[in-house]
Amino acid sequence: MKLVIFGLGFTAQAFVAFAQSRFLSITATVRSAERAAELSRAGLDVVVFNETISDPRLEIALKAADAVLVSAGPDDFGDPVLRRFKTVIEQSSTVRWIGYLSTIGVYGDAQGGWVDETTPVDPSHKRTQIRVAVEQEWIALGTRVQKSVQIFRLAGIYGPGRNPILNLKSRAQRIIKPGQVFNRIHVDDIAQTLLASLAHPRAGAIYNVTDDEPAPPQDVLLFAADLLGIEPPPEVPFEDAVMSDMARSFYADNKRVSNRLIREELGVALRFPTYREGIRALATAGEGR
């Protein structure tokens, strides 16, 4: 099987590390020549794709691909991949599986209640409104040309190199907003979900890719600090916390997201069903030392 990945970022790199042996070839995109050279040295076929540059090898690889994973986020005008390569993908005689990585942010605020894939989307911000539009465009493409398009709505992503342990090392704030919870997902569990979908494609499928336990962010930091035997950062009321507008906007949405569908339909057994297993495994592996 030949795979093309748009956007070789944190999640896509973890997927490649997890599943590279399953593919005959992988071609992946980054935004700069410097980054392409760096990742190509690791044995990957990495090409440049941005607003002004599209390496000719990318279209060649796309025409021969069996699967396409879109991990690159949209811009203010929609999905750059669709703008540039929609016709190539539609006309492909080989592509049988397309995965689009989206976000559980499309559900908006449920005031702490549970949501699942049947819950109507209600995006609270422009960026998640664009996500919804892009999801719909990918689903429409699949319907139009009878290709299996799957949408994966990801929770807050963590894993090696990006996790609460490292946040503690940089003295993360322990922000308290009563009643606030977030779902999370380890990159390895994203990877195994994608592989399960590749084995069992379902056109138009939408999956929440998240852990079992929505939890207050301060509890997660406290658990990590206790595990490492260090003093946790002091509590800071949400109203007094210093954070970017982007970070603050995440606290506007409060929901608990169900992962029942990936478990029951795809047979996914999470390696890290809660943040406890994930953080404990990272600490055991020496993260943050």
Structural features, described:
Strands 3-2-1-4-5-7-11 form a seven-stranded parallel sheet, with helices on both faces. It has a two-stranded parallel sheet with strand order 6-13. Strands 8-10 form a two-stranded parallel ribbon. Helix 4 packs parallel to helix 5. The mean pLDDT is 95. Helices cover 38% and strands 19% of the residues. With 289 residues, the chain is α/β, with parallel strands linked by helices. Helix 1 links the parallel strand 1 (2-6) and strand 2 (25-30). It has a domain at 2-159 and 184-211 and 257-271: 3-Layer(aba) Sandwich (Rossmann fold), CATH 3.40.50.720.
Name the features.
single chain; 289 residues; Rossmann fold; two-stranded parallel sheet; 11 helices
Question: Which structural class best describes the helix and strand composition?
Answer: alpha/beta
Quick one: biggest sheet? 7 strands, parallel
Query: What is the number of helices?
Result: 11
Percentage of β-strand residues:
15-25%
Order of helices and strands: EHEHEHEHEEHEEHEEHEHEHEHH
Oligomeric status = single chain
CATH superfamily of one domain: NAD(P)-binding Rossmann-like Domain
Low-confidence stretches: none
3D shape: globular
The top-level CATH class of one domain is Alpha Beta
Q: If strands are numbered along the chain, what order do they take across the biggest sheet?
A: 3-2-1-4-5-7-11
Topology:
Elements: E1 2-6, H1 10-19, E2 25-30, H2 33-40, E3 45-48, H3 56-64, E4 67-70, H4 80-91, E5 97-103, E6 114-115, H5 126-145, E7 148-154, E8 156-158, H6 164-169, E9 174-176, E10 184-186, H7 187-199, E11 205-209, H8 217-228, E12 235-237, H9 245-250, E13 256-257, H10 260-264, H11 275-284
Parallel strand pairs: 1-2, 1-4, 2-3, 4-5, 5-7, 6-13, 7-11, 8-10, 9-12
